[in-house]
Amino acid sequence: MRYFSQFMVALAVVVFVGHAAPDAQAQVNPTERSVTEESMFEALTGDSNAVSGRVSIPDRGAGNLIKPDNKSWAVLQGSTLQTLSIVAVVGMIALLTLFYLVRGRIRVDAGFSGRKILRFGTIDRFAHWTLAGTFIVLAITGLNLIIGRTVILPIIGEGAFGTLTAFGKIAHNYLAWPFMLALVLVFVLWVLENIPNKLDLEWIKQGGGLLKKGVHPPAKKFNAGQKVIFWSVILGGAGLSFTGFMLLFPAVAGTPADWQMYQTIHALVAAGLSAIIIAHIYIGSVGMEGAFDAMGSGEVDENWAKEHHALWVEEEKAKPAKESALSTPAE
Ligand code: HEM
Predict the structure, then answer these.
(1) 301 pairs with which residues across the strands?
(2) d(CA 83, CA 88)
(3) Whose Cα sits closest to atom 14 in ligand 1?
(4) Measured in angstroms, how far is the CA atom of residue 50 from the centroid of ligand 1?
(5) Residue-wise pLDDT tens digits, 4-20
């Protein structure tokens, strides 16, 4: 049985090579115990389309066994993109740890007042958490495709890694759709308050008050730092959506080289945006006292709001009681 299957493999190679390049038969002995990929390529150099057979179905691409060009793309995947992804994620976590050790948690200097102000309503929070939840799963399952074989497989073994990656891929393909919907919703809800203005320069000059205790540059609903997050999410998310769509539908993407380009851009944008989002998650949770409430209950303490968004509080106070966020009774 073993010899029969070896014979069949050898026969398949004879037929394939015979179709691909007649000259090759002179240099490669397909009945050798092992015909290495290298010896095939050596025999077929000079023509990047050489390792192709003939197919009778309309999809000519199905006749390509492997193209030497694809090897450089595979190397890019296996080394450069892997390294960049690890550096982006681990580098950001290291930076934030350092920041935490030096600056500590950013406190509400005046202490909590006990009075609440509505910062984000139900629709805002629904949009945020749909975007956040889908992005986090997409980022983890996507990262697994880039670094999983090197980092996770040796830890959990082939069986578990195979199952995990197969489910991860399904989750990645399907969660991309609610992610895109939430991205559009977040854009529509918050774009007007995220248009850059002169105030942002002052906020940046003062380091957003993040570096020194007691410094609180004035800001409206979103400060310059949050605008950077917003636009990174919108533009990065749009880039990921477009390139992701091309990856899902290769027939639309164009040539295999185009598809590979979209894949490379997709991986690079994902690594960059993941690093930015890790910083966002830090500042929205452990990094800043009182911040999480904005997306948790939707209501923040008035002193927190005055320290981080003084002009927004003034705007809300100037509104008639019925429309003002301040009219929300404290719990
Ligand atoms: C567990 C994870 C997360 C936490 C704890 C968190 C927390 C928060 C909080 C507290 C705010 C409101 C800040 C304010 O009062 O203005 C916020 C805003 C926002 N979040 Fe998240 N977030 C998380 C994940 C994400 C993810 C994954 C994304 C996008 C992919 C995202 C995108 C945004 C955007 C665009 C805003 C508005 C701009 C800003 O405030 O920076 N968030 N988030």
Answers:
(1) 116
(2) 9
(3) 294
(4) 51
(5) 555 454 444 444 444 44
In the chain, the largest separation of any two C-alpha atoms, in whole Å, equals 89
> What is the set of domains in the chain, with CATH numbers?
2-63 (no CATH), 69-327 (1.20.950.20)
Token pair belonging to 147: 């670094």
258: its two tokens: 């185009």
Ligand 1 geometric centre to CA of 223 (Å): 13
Cα gap 198→196, rounded to integer Å: 7
- Nearest Cα neighbor of 152 from 161, 141, 140, 143 is 161
* Closest CA to ligand 1's atom 25: 132
Q: Give the mean pLDDT per block of 10 residues along the chain (331 residues).
A: 50 44 51 65 55 78 71 85 96 98 96 97 98 98 94 96 97 98 98 97 95 93 98 98 97 91 97 98 97 98 97 94 67 45
Looking at the DSSP bridge assignments, the partners of residue 117 are 300
Q: Which of 241, 283, 295, 312 to mutate to test the pocket of ligand 1 (most atoms within 8 A of CB)?
A: 295
Distance CA 294, CA 242 (A): 31
Alpha helices in the chain (DSSP H): 2-20, 24-27, 37-43, 68-75, 82-103, 122-151, 153-190, 198-205, 224-248, 250-253, 256-283, 302-308, 310-318
Could you tell me the distance, in angstroms and rounded to a whole number, from the CA of residue 199 to the centre of ligand 1?
A: 21
* Of 196, 197, 271, residue with least CA distance to 228: 196
Q: How many CB atoms lie within 10 A of CB 140?
A: 14
Q: Give the bridge partners for 116, in sequence order.
A: 301
Q: Write the burial class of residue 39 (CB in 10 Å: 0-12 exposed, 13-18 middle, 19+ buried).
A: middle
- How much is the pTM? 0.83
CA of 281 to the centre of ligand 1 (A): 7
In angstroms, rounded to a whole number, what is the distance separating the alpha carbons of residues 264 and 131? Answer: 23
In this structure, which residue's CA is closest to atom 43 in ligand 1? 284
